[in-house]
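Hi V.,

Quick status before I head out on leave. The structure for the redesign project is tokenized and pasted below; the design run finished overnight.
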């Protein structure tokens, strides 16, 4: 191939879906189990058309992300569809005052397009490390339903169920409205029940209000040998200084950087001693191009990176990394399906609770690009908006 394909059109599609027995949690609108309720959600797809007749597509990103894509569509149209570095670097500058929203989703679709042109999955373009990915069961936040994750014992029961299914690791997203004593009891209950048989993680995602309460929870994690402790308190997960102080007071390894975007800010946080594990997210950190830069930077520091969230994208990236431990499978719950952005993946792809093999692994999709087809019949039937740049 001498002449690379050119980007001729970028299309954004929004569609709706619903999930039963779930509602938005009161304070920050995250999904929570609630029998009889229905959560109406919206998902978004970027499609990039090339003059080679091959199209790249990616499901993901918030409405805020997609609203910024128009600001960079102009710099991508007409470019080589393989010019991911150039588009990443130009988008960084163009979106410098807009939190670099939207560039990640464009990058993901470009990787899908490249894989489809060369007829290989993205992880083989990146460089294959492995195809089986150890998964952790990542729970919904706690609820107060009679048959839900309503008590420390209910979480411990669910952890045991996950262990029996084959999971080797379990991550707790606790209640948003619980006192710190209940958080501590939760860590103790799950730790006592399965701590000697599973790697355990705790992710309050910044629900704990004070540094002092975070230290109490951290000491409970220490007592039960937790594998990592993530976004411990309400600084919002962004203070390198605060997490350096927490690392001096608590032994459990800290996992930060879900809420800090991009390569340079990740490296600054590492250099400031603010974290042990490095969080990466294809939707926040500049797509696969940005995530792989962070993975390799962390590798140079001898640190591991842990992909945030489920989907074909994180699987493709993790399959091309040595320095990563677990795939986040979720959100999972004893009574509810995974939210997962709607029932749009084909080819038997799943991130439901039973998606692991008997050894607790998920597998990287092997078809070209991101590796999973999309159900365009469903998407068009439920479409709520479409914007085209050409
Ligand atoms: Mg998290």
């Amino acid at each position: 191939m001498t002449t690379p394909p050119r980007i001729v059109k970028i299309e954004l599609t929004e569609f709706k879906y619903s999930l039963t027995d779930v509602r938005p949690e009161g304070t920050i609108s995250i999904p929570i189990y609630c029998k009889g309720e229905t959560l109406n959600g919206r998902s978004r797809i970027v499609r990039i058309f090339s003059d080679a007749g091959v199209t790249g597509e990616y499901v993901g990103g918030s409405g805020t992300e997609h609203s910024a894509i128009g600001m960079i569509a102009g710099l991508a149209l007409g470019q080589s569809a393989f010019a991911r570095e150039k588009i990443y670097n130009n988008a960084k500058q163009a979106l410098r005052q807009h939190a670099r929203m939207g560039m990640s989703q464009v990058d993901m679709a470009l990787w899908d397009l490249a894989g489809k042109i060369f007829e290989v999955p993205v992880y083989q373009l990146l460089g294959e490390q492995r195809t089986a990915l150890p998964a952790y069961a990542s729970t919904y936040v706690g609820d107060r339903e009679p048959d839900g994750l309503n008590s420390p014992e209910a979480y411990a029961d669910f952890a045991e169920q996950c262990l029996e299914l084959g999971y080797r690791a379990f991550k707790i997203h606790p209640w948003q409205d619980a006192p710190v004593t209940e958080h501590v009891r939760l860590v103790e209950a799950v730790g006592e029940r399965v701590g000697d048989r599973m790697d355990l993680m705790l992710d309050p995602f910044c629900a704990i209000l004070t540094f002092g309460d975070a230290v109490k929870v951290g000491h409970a994690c220490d007592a039960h040998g937790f594998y990592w402790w993530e976004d411990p308190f309400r600084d919002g997960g962004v203070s390198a200084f605060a997490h350096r102080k927490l690392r001096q007071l608590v032994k459990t390894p800290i996992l930060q950087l879900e809420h800090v975007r991009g390569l340079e800010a990740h490296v600054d946080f590492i250099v400031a001693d603010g974290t042990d594990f490095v969080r990466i997210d294809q939707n926040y950190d500049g797509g696969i191009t940005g995530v792989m830069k962070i993975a390799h930077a962390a590798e140079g520091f001898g640190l591991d990176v842990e992909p945030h969230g489920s989907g074909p994208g994180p699987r493709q990236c993790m399959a091309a990394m040595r320095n990563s431990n677990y795939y986040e499978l979720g959100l999972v719950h004893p009574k509810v399906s995974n939210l997962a952005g709607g029932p749009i993946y084909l080819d038997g792809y799943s991130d439901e609770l039973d998606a692991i093999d008997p050894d607790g692994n998920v597998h990287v999709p092997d078809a070209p690009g991101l590796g999973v087809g999309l159900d365009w019949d469903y998407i068009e039937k439920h479409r709520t908006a479409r914007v085209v740049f050409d």
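Above is the designed sequence. The radius of gyration is 21 Å.

G. will cover questions while I'm gone.

Best,
W.
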